[in-house]
């Protein structure tokens, strides 16, 4: 494997780990926080939403993280890394 491919594979593994961790946190029921604004400081940190909206948002985020991890794993496999 070329050095560039090895670097790419390591980055993919880190991204997979992050996506899997976020999925697991959502699955455990960790609280969701919605923050609007820039990294310098949020413009708005509290909004009221219905429990159903939070449930649907949590499910959509979990689906998204699962899809992201699957795509990253496919990219890793394309580099010749199994696992």
What attributes does this structure have?
single chain; about 65% helix
Structure description:
- With 83 residues, this protein is mainly α.
- The protein has one domain (3-78).
- 64% of the residues lie in helices and 8% in strands.
- It contains 2 helices and 2 strands.
- The protein has helices spanning 3-27, 51-78, and strands spanning 36-38, 41-44.
- Strands 1-2 form a two-stranded antiparallel ribbon.
- Helix 1 runs antiparallel to helix 2 (51-78).
- The protein is elongated, with a radius of gyration of 17 Å.
- The two termini are 16 Å apart.
Overview in brief:
This protein has 83 residues and is mainly α. Helix content is 64%, strand content 8%.
Describe the protein's topology:
Elements: H1 3-27, E1 36-38, E2 41-44, H2 51-78
Helix pairs in contact: 1-2
Helix content: 55-70%
- How many DSSP helices? 2
Mean pLDDT, all residues: 88
Taken from the alpha-carbon principal axes, the silhouette is elongated
What is the CA-atom radius of gyration, in angstroms? 17 Å
What series of H and E elements makes up the topology? HEEH
- Amino-to-carboxy terminus distance: 16 Å
- Low-confidence runs (pLDDT<50, min 5 residues)? none
Order of neighbouring strands in the sheet with most strands:
1-2
Number of separate structural domains: 1
Question: How would a textbook summarize the main sheet?
Answer: 2 strands, antiparallel
Instruction: Report the sheet-strand fraction.
Output: 5-15%
Q: From the helix content, strand content and strand pairing, which structural class follows?
A: mainly alpha
Number of strands: 2
């Amino acid at each position: 494997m070329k050095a560039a491919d090895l670097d790419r594979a390591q980055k993919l593994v880190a991204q997979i780990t992050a996506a899997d961790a976020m999925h697991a946190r959502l699955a455990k029921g960790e609280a969701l926080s919605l923050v609007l604004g820039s990294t310098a400081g949020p413009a708005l940190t509290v909004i009221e939403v219905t429990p159903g909206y939070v449930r649907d948002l949590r499910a959509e985020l979990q689906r998204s993280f699962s899809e992201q991890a699957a795509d990253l794993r496919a990219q890793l496999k394309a580099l010749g890394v199994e696992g």
